[in-house]
Structures are given as C-alpha cells and as structure tokens.
Amino acid sequence: MQAAAVMEETNNATTIEQQPIALINGQEQVANEQQPSSPTLVATPTSTTSGGTGNATPAFSYDDLFPALPANTSAQSQSGASGSTLARVTSSQKTHIVHVPCKERKSTESEKFGEGESKRICQQITKETGAQIEIVSGKNQSLTFLIKGKQSELLDARRKILMGFSTQASRQVTVPREHFRVILGKGGQRLRELERVTATRINIPSQGDESEFITIAGTKEGIAQAEQEIRQLSAEQYKKSSDRITVPKVYHPFIVGPYSENLNKLQEETGARINVPPQQVQKDEIIISGEKDAVAAAKAKVEAIFKDMEKKCSTVSVEVAKPKHRYVIGPKGSTIAEILQLTGVSVEMPPNDSPSETITLRGPQVALGNALTVVYQKSNSVKSVEINAPHWIHKYVIGRKGANMKQLEEDCPNVNVNCLEDKIKLEGDPENVDRAVAYLSEIINNYEENFTFEVMTVNPSYYKHIIGKAGANVNRLKDELKVNINFEEREGQNNIRIEGPKEGVRQAQLELQEKIDKLENEKSKDVIIDRRLHRSIIGAKGEKIREVKDRYRQVTITIPTPQENTDIVKLRGPKEDVDKCHKDLLKLVKEIQESSHIIEVPIFKQFHKFIIGKGGANIKKIRDETQTKIDLPAEGDTNEVIVITGKKENVLEAKERIQKIQNELSDIVTEEVQIPPKYYHSIIGAGGKLISSIMEECGGVSIKFPNSDSKSDKVTIRGPKDDVEKAKGQLLELTNERQLASFTAEVRAKQQHHKFLIGKNGASIRQIRDATGARIIFPSNDDTDKEVITIIGKEDSVNKAREKLEAIIKECDEVTEGEVSVDPKHHKHFVAKRGFILHRISEECGGVMISFPRVGTNSDKVTIKGAKDCIEAARQRIEEIVADLEAQVTIEVVIPQRHHRTIMGARGFKVQQVTFEFDVQIKFPDRDATEPVEVLTNGGSGENGGEEGQEGEQQAEKEAEQEPVRQCDVIRITGSIEKCEAAKQALLDLIPIEEELSVPFDLHRTIIGPRGANVRQFMSKHDVHVELPSSELKSDVIKVCGTPARVAEAREALKQMIVDYEADRADRELRSFVVQVDVDTEFHSKLIGRHGAVINKLRADHDVNISLPKRNEPNDRIISITGYQANAEAARDAILEIVGDADSLHREVIEIDKCIHPHIIGQRRRYIRKIMEDYQVNIKFPPADQQTNSVTIFGKIEDVETVKELLLGIAEDYGSEFLENAALPPQTIGAFLTSSGSGVGGATENGFVIKDAPWEKQKQAKNLTAPNTQSQEDFPHFAAGGAPVASAPITSVWGPKN
Asked: How far apart (Å, rounded) are the C-alpha atoms in residues 506 and 986?
C-alpha cells in the first residue's frame, strides 16, 4: 500500500524581517508603454540567428514574449514613500497539508463529498483538537486536508484525519510483558506521544491478559515507524539486568546511611538502582537493577558494607518511657537519621503496638556511649504540658483564621499544640513550651472572665422567624452585641447557642426569648374565600391587599397562587391581630361580592355604536357616573348582550340609561301575548332552541316568559314594531297547535306511592312517557291536592298512560309497611357513603324502600315499605348487619409510617379495595403523631377489648424491631374479628419487600431498553421498582422492590425473560453460520445486479446476509454468507449457479481510446445501459485512474460480435469528429511563433530559445540552459494539439516535479 503523502509547510514564530523590494528587470520602463492585448498583435520577436538554416534554434527576448502588466502607480508611489524595505510579520501558527489518495480512502456513508460521515468526522476532529481543517476533493477522488493550528493540535488532528479517512492496516509486535511499562511511560505519556507522532493507534494488553502481542493500527508508514520505536525501546531493556541480595534488616540503616546518603552515593558510583525496603516493611531482601556491570558492582559494594558492619557492630539496650519514643524517632524518622549521622550508630525502636520500652543501639563499640548520650538527650528534649480549657474556648484560642496559632508559632517555634475535649496539650522544647503555656493561659483566662455562653431550647418551626429574611434578625444581633449565634441539634434537642461577651450574651438571650414568647403567642388561621375573588382582594398592582397588610404589619397574609387551586387564605401573627385581620378580610369580601352584581341587557346590534358614542364618549360617561363595568360584545361577534357589573342599584341605573338610548333611536315597542303557562315548556323547546329560532327569524326580538312563581300568563315581546307582530303571530300559532294536543286526564294516587310510580332516577315514569307519548305531571310542594297526577297529550296517548298508571297504583295499594328497631348509634353506618348499604339491601330484597328517622329525632324505628316477603327479607338483613355491628371490634396493626402511602395506593385505591372486600373500616393515624406507644409490642396488634393480637408478617416485625413503635405507625381496623384479621393480613401483604434476583448481566441492556423504556414498562405492568447495578460493576444481581405478590409475579416474568433470552441467543448462534464462496471479482457486479436487485433477491429468498469484499482487500474474491446453515448453503448454490451461467458466456476485449469512453458511457451511464439492455450483454470499462484502453464485453457470442462492431463504429465516428475539431489552429505560443516566424524556416521543429529570462540569472550557478520548448515537462501540449513526444527525457529548467 502506498503511504499517504504528507506535505508540511512550517512557519517560524512571529518575527519581523527587513527584506528588499524585488522589481522585475525593466518593469519601470515597460509600465509606461502601451501593452499588446494578445500575442497575435505583437511584432515578430528579434532573433539572433539567420533565417536560412532549418536546424538552428531561434532565440527570442523574454520581455517580448512575456510583457509585464501595467504598473499600479498608486502602489508604486506608496512603496516609494515607505522606503526601500518592508517589515514582514509572520504568524506563529503552523500548517500541515495531508493528502489521502483515492486507493487509500475509506468509504463513507454519503455519496457526495463533504456530507454525511465525512462532514461529521471533520467537525468532531476540529472540536476535539482545536485545529482548523479545510478539505478539497480531487477529480480522482483523492482528499487533501489543510490543517492550521499549533504544533500539538496539528499532530493530533493529522493522526485523527488519517485514522478517519485513510484505510487502516494493523500489525502485531511481540514484546516481553516486562517491557510494557517502558513503552507506556509515566502515566501512559510515552505511548500517547508515540501515537501522535506516528498517527497510529497502539493497543497494549492489560495486566490481566498474558498476551505479549502489541497491536499497531494505522497507515503502513506509521505502523513501520511505530514498530521501529517499540523495538528500539524493547532492545534497550534487554541490556538491563536485576539481582536480589539478602541482608538482615538490622544492617539496612548502614547501607542506606543517614538521610539516604550512602544509598545515593552507591547509585551514583555504580549507575545501578538499589531498592531497600522501608523501615516499617519487615523484609531482608534488597533489589538491584540496571546494566549488568553496574548491578554486579553495586551488589559487591552492598555485600562489603554488610560484612564490614557485621564484624564491627555491637549492641546496647536502654529503657525509655514509651511516650518519649516518638521524640527519639523524630518527624518521619529524622532524629534517628541524625543520630546515625552524628555517631554512626543505628537506633532500633520497638513496634508501636508493643508495650516494650526497650530501645536497642547497634554500631561500633566505641560509638555506642556517645549514641547512648544523644538518645537520652533527645528523649528528654521535649516537654509535655496540659492546660485546662473548656471546649467552647478552643476556637477563640486558635483565633480567626488561626491568627493566635500563627503568632504562637513565631514566638515559640517547634511547639506542638493539640486541642482535646476540655484541655489543650503542648509539646516541644521546654523553654518554648513554658512561654507557650503563659501565652495561651492568658488568652484562656481572658475569655473565661469576660466571655460566656448560653444554650436555649427552641422549637425548630420558629427558626425561620428568629433568623429573619436573609438572616436579618440574627445578623443584627451579631453586629450590635458582638456575639456568635449558632443553631444546633444535640441529643435529639434543637438548641440555639449564644457565645460572646457576658453582657452581649445576656441581652441577646433576652431578645431571643422575647421573640420566642411572641412566636408561641402567635396564631394561624385559615380563611375560606372563593378563589375567583382572590384577584379582586389583591387589587390592581396589589393595592387592596397592601392596605390590609399596612394595617396589620405583624400578620402574614398568604394568598394561594392560581396554580394551587385552593380557596384557603392563611393568616399568621399575634392572636388579636389575626382575629381583627380576619374580620377585615371578610368585610372586604362582602364589599366585593356586593359590587359584583351582574346583569345582561339585550340591545340590538345596530344601536351598539350609538351607545358607545364618538371616541367612546357615551359609554365612558355612563361608566363614570354609575361606577359600573360595562362590557360590549366584540365587533365580529353575533351576540347582542351587553354585560353590566357593579353594585345592584348602579347596575340598574346603567341598564335604564342604555335602554333609553335604544328607545330614543328606534320604534321599539313592547307587546304582551296571553299564553297558558302549561304550554311554556313546549314553546321554549329543549334547551331553548325553539324560542331562540323564533327570535332569530323575527329580527332578534326579545321574548320574555314570566317566572314560574308569578302564575302569570302574559308573555312579553319587545323589539321593532314589524318584528314584534311577526313574532306574536308565530307564538299564537304554536299555542293553538299545543292546545290541540293537550287533552288532560287526572289519576289519583297516595302521595307515598308517587316515588314507586316515578321509579329510581325517574326510570318508571320515563318508560311510560316513551311508550305513550303523553306528559305526566306530579303535584309540587305548593299544590294543595298532593294526590292528583295530571296526564297531558293526545286523547289516545292520555288514555294509554292512565291505564298504565292505574295498573301500577293498584299494585302499590297492595304494598305493606313494616318496621324494625335499630339503635341510633348504628344509623350512621347504614346511611354513610350516600346510602350505599341501603341501596344494596333494597336491590337484594325486591326494591323495598327503607326510611331511617331524621338526625336529631332520637328514634330507633326504621320503616320498610314493599311486598310482605320483601319486607321480611330486608328486616332480616338489617338485623344481621346490626348483629355484626354489635360484635365489631377494633384491632391495631403496627406498620411503619413510611409504608402507609404505598399501602393506601393512588388516591387510596388499595385500601378502599381492602375495606370493600372485607367490609371493615380502616383508620390511618396522623403522620405528625410521633409519640411512642409502649403498650404494643414490635410488629404486634391489639384490640380495644384488651385481647392480645396476632403477630404480623416477618417484614413488619423486622422493621418494627429496628425502631420504636410510634402513634403514627398504628393503623386501626374496625369490624368483625374474622374480617379484621383478614383485613390485617391483607394490609401486611401490601408492605413492600426487596428481593435480589440473579439475571445475567448480558440481559440487563435488554431489560432497560432504549432510554429505559422497557424497564419503565416492566415496573408499571408489575407495580414494582427495579434497581439494576451500574455497568462498571458488571453484577448479575437485580433488586426488585414491591409487595410480595407483585415481587413474585415480577420474578416469574424475569425468569421467563431469561428463558426467552437464552433461546434467542441460541437462535442467534444458529443464524451466525458462515459460508465463504470464492468468486472471481469480474462476476461480482453480475451478482449485485442493477441497483442491487440480484443480491437483494438472494438475501430475501434465503433469509441470509451476503457480504461482498471491498476493493483492494487482500481476499477480494471471497464472498461471505451468514445465516442458518441450510439457508446459507442454499444461497451458496444459487450464487455458484449464477456464476456458472456467467462463466459460460463469451468474453472479448477490444481497444477503444480512453478519451472516447465517457462519450460511449453517456451521462449517468444512460447510453451504455441502453446498449446492454438491448443486446443482453455486459460491458466493463476500466477505472478512471487506470491508463488503459481495454473494454471487455460479456454475453452470447453473436451478441458480443454485434456490440463489438457497434462500439468500434461509435469510436470511429467520434474520433473523426474529434480530429476535425483538432485541425483548427491552436491558440498557443507555438502557433504564434509558427505564424510570426515564417521568415525563419523550420523554427517550430526544433523549438526556440528565450533570452534574458529570470531563470537564466537565477540558475547560472547550476549551469542550466534556457528551457527547451520541445520539453514535454516544461511545455506540455493539449490533447488537441497532437504534438509529438520527445524520444528521450529532457531535464526541466523549472526544477523537479513536486
């Protein structure tokens, strides 16, 4: 593979250079002359050779052949004014040009360059590296990238571009595992740098992997460079060695030396690395690594030191108090190192966890005495003193930001201060410790005399009022009294701690106590005000509510927002002020309600503009004078009603004035029509539709019927005279029609039987009306005769309805009435829940009517009406319910309060189910009742009769044992003992449990689903909460939380999911069977077909995936088929059959000039496709980047011959046209010279020479001559020119090609 060509242009750091201005020779003179517009108008150039010789090479003047452009005089004048030199500023950025040839390009998802994946990759690289990237696509499909940025950005961007756009190869390099750390470098820095420089990706096996193969991926050139660097680093490691030597631990200090002096010296002298285990690590082995010679030398020196000290050393033991050992050790062992440096003796200390006080000195005999003296001095060099200081003073002793400690450190260096519970401990030099004790004692005494603290127990609900808005109250006390106030919780109590000067603490305590007393005296009150009036109470810009708040500044008024959807306004403050504020608010509400009287006035639309007046003058005057709000319908609205709002008397006045304007402007009349009230409903129609249609049809007149209480038969019609007359005629016509269909009959029935006739929700009477079409009217409360039922309608309909009613009344007369005694204390049970129990008894017992006495009558007689057998069944059922109520008990079940919401369910659905199923009453406690309950045992239950309850579920017991039982944990169940126990068990079954299930980690992603959709659906379906482990843990354990039944259901669902997953995985394995077929690349296009038709049909028919190799792959003949084994083999046979058919076809190669290929192919292969379809052949042209003229034709022999003749004919015709066009004289310098140099015979055959050209002066040092026009490199010809190619390569004056 050819490596991607990379060209680099590097600019130096920003510099300013002085450079002379370069002027073309003779430019100043030529600039003032008129220049020719084209070569044909220039006079014949001067030649130094005579015209008779055909082989001579003519020479021409450079200025004649390449005249200068007209000069810019303004630029010249400016440049002349600026002097002879210019200052050039260059950028500090660098530029890379990266070229990716077509053969090495990766294929992208988009056909068009710059779109799809290519665009996304470039944007991502720019975002990650910060470098600017510009892309250019060549005609040969190659890519060129221009990268600008800093050096580090360029390297990163270059590497990412080659990885993203260039075809990647890979290679494995074998390197011993112990060399991996050298290749990685510190923190992987060397590996990252190597990847950036070589533009490759290097993968080193992890620690758990035993492989020794390092994989390098990238371009061929980058892989070779990276491999060389890795092998070089590995080769350097081969030269190194390591060795181990065992030296007793007691001699290690002599090898290391004081402050590691000996060890450093050994490493410098030998060049080896010596690793001595730390003092606290009990190992005798010393490791030496480095070059082989250095390791041997270091080992010899270490052994020499060990043997020398083994001969010289003696030991002596000394007893030193255990607390003083740390003074001998010193910080980080510095004192032991100091003793070793001074005396050459090693000090061996007993372990910290050992009670021994013996210190061993080891070293030369003569030095032991001196070392012993130093040890005693060091052990007694530190004094330890404890000062009594209350814990609350410690922070003052330390000072603000440690100021006192810093001062102490300056005055008394090397003194260690440690604050204990009620003491301060000082350690250090005796003299400095004494000074520190005096300094701290003075501070402590000062604070004990002048400062104090107080602790106040306060209800936490008062904290926000004590602190104030943004801490205003507390900050004021701190600033004025110089005290410190902290809110803290200790031992379950909420306290306020005040610290500071005694007088300040006293005053702060008084003020806070006064505030607390005031808060305890405060009162909260809820005022129910219709939320529709809240905006009116607040007023415009809050003016009204601000007036109330100003009058009661100590009262907090909280009005709910529109989103809260509540009517409760909360008041809080002193009791008296809250009560007064409450009265004022109610008074304000009353005033608002009085001023909110609304009336609607119908005014004909054509008069609205007169009511408004010019510029709204009339309506404004009415509003101001009557103090009302008047709303008119919008301009396009068909509604004619004007709405007036305000006080009742003002509204009536505004109404009169508006109606007066209408009456003055029109012939509005008012007429009354006498219509019997019994026809009102039929004339008005359902929903007022009939009367509305009449009003619309008659010009919008107003028709007003009298109220039902007035007993008037006058209907008022108001409007224009003609419209009123029209409406009157229609009303009278409707009345006559109703009178014809108003035959009336009366039926008498006892008043108590009326409800039987009407039926439940009017079902019986509605059935009679629908069957007969008659209208049946029962007496109202105002009628004197309560037994008369009126039937109205046509005569036959009335007779049918009367017969049906009389039949029902006859049955009702046979109805009897019974009584049953029920204790009044049980009445509430029967009538509760909108009489649900009574309705159920009535339905079970033949529709009897059960009447309980009214509340307050203190009667125990319950009346039952209906058939005798039904009354007896109802009485028996009521007595059974009363017996159950008498036998009811109340049991208590302890369930932690945090589970109550789960047990209740959404809107209490779960607990309602339990209540309905077991016919019990369940009462949940107040969640704020946190007082402990001592009677109940953990997880137990009890009855109000004192009987001991049964134990609850293990879950409830386990939770109850972990915390005390509180009032808010006790749920009370009332009902019969058996039902209560069953309901209790049902409640306990609702307590959520958590269960851990083992689900393969591979299945977790499937359980979660896209964006968690699957797991949310699973939790919703099974009503459980599922918690999956994080992906880093890779654990199989899934936690499922919910009720036991739901958890069991979820467990079974997960097991089924695992079974399905395993089956799917097995199916995937079966579908992964791969068959490879070796097919010549020339048949691949035949297999693909037009737009992939053939290969797509093969995939669909055999349900397999067929992968064809990419271009330039090593195994470009291998086609892979993936699917079930039988399907893959069938697809393979089908492919071989297609290839066999194609292989049997005749093949012929013809030569056609490559320049003519595009003409034969046509735009978008239109012409060549038509030829292939017409003659049933396949034609292949060579790729654009191959310089060959061969065209291959496949097909039947007779078709191939026909197409061959056709293509050759097309090529011949196009070639002749091409040559005719090429015969025209070319517009080139050669043509110009031919025409202008006719006097010089044969000048075009041998070319010409240009004299006085710039390259002559620039290339004299290299001995190069003027350019020869016969050179194809210097003067290439166009295709139409047909110039002959030089037989031998001619060296180019322009220099080598890039």
From this structure: 59
CATH level 3 topology of 1072-1188: Ribosomal Protein S8; Chain: A, domain 1 (3.30.1370)
What are 908's two structure tokens?
């209490």
pLDDT at residue 878, as a whole number: 87
Residue extent(s) of CATH 3.30.1370.10 domains in the chain: 94-236, 239-381, 529-594, 609-662, 667-740, 741-813, 815-886, 889-991, 992-1071, 1072-1188
| Domain range 667-740, CATH class | alpha beta
In a 13 Å sphere around the CA of 897, the CA atoms on its Cβ side amount to 15
Q: Write down the H helix ranges in 271-421.
A: 292-312, 325-329, 334-343, 365-379, 394-398, 403-411
Confidence of residue 944 (pLDDT cuts 50, 70, 90): very low
| Residue owning tokens 């004289």 | 1225
What's the whole-model pTM score?
Answer: 0.31
**How high is the pLDDT of residue 1263?**
53
CATH of domain 741-813: 3.30.1370.10
**Is residue 81 classed as helix, strand or coil in its secondary structure?**
helix
Give the strands of the sheet with 213-218, arranged side by side: 169-174, 213-218, 200-203
Least confident of 39-43, 743-747, 1157-1161: 39-43
Q: Can you name the CATH fold of 529-594?
A: Ribosomal Protein S8; Chain: A, domain 1 (3.30.1370)
Whether 895 and 969 have beta carbons less than 8 Å apart is answered as yes
Strand order of the β-sheet with 493-501 is 451-457, 493-501, 484-490
Rg of the chain in Å (alpha carbons):
55
pLDDT, residue 1122, reads 92
**Taking the domain 239-381, which CATH number applies?**
3.30.1370.10
β-pairing, 941-943 with 1025-1027?
unpaired
Q: Assign domain 889-991 to its CATH superfamily.
A: K Homology domain, type 1 (3.30.1370.10)
Q: Quote the CA–CA distance of 815 and 891 in Å, as a whole number.
A: 44
Q: Angle 363-366-371 (CA atoms, 0-180°, nearest 5)?
A: 60
Lowest mean pLDDT among 210-224, 297-311, 1215-1229: 1215-1229
Question: Which element (helix H / strand E) includes 1298?
Answer: none
Which of helix, strand or coil describes residue 64? helix
Query: What DSSP element (H or E) covers 447?
Result: helix 430-450
Tell me the C-alpha distance between 558 and 566, whole Å.
Answer: 12
Domain 94-236 has CATH 3.40.50.2300: no
pLDDT of residue 1262: 53
Residues 1174 and 1167: their CA atoms lie apart, in Å, by: 11
Cα separation of 786 and 775, whole Å?
A: 18
Segment 742-760, tens digit of pLDDT: 677 888 887 767 777 777 6
The CA distance from 726 to 240, in Å, is 123
Whole-number average pLDDT of the chain: 77
Q: Which two tokens stand for residue 776?
A: 């049946």
Q: Please enumerate in sequence order all residues whose Cβ is within 8 A of that of 935, keeping only pairs 6 or more positions apart, or say none.
A: 942
* 609-662 is a CATH 3.90.1300.10 domain: no
pLDDT digit string (tens) for 328-348?
A: 888 888 888 888 888 889 998
Q: Which CATH class is domain 815-886?
A: alpha beta
Q: Does the pLDDT at position 111 exceed 70? A: no
| DSSP character at residue 942 | E
Which residues have a Cβ under 8 Å from the Cβ of 247 and sit 6 or more positions away? Answer: 255, 284, 286, 302, 303, 306
The CATH number of 992-1071, from 2.30.40.10, 3.10.310.40, 3.40.640.10, 3.30.1370.10, is 3.30.1370.10
Q: Would you tell me how many other CB atoms lie within 10 Å of the CB of residue 628?
A: 21
Q: Is 1297 helix (H, G, I), strand (E, B) or coil?
A: coil
pLDDT in tens, 432-477: 888 888 888 888 888 888 888 888 888 887 888 888 888 888 888 8
Report the relative pairing of strands 556-558 and 597-602 from DSSP bridges.
unpaired
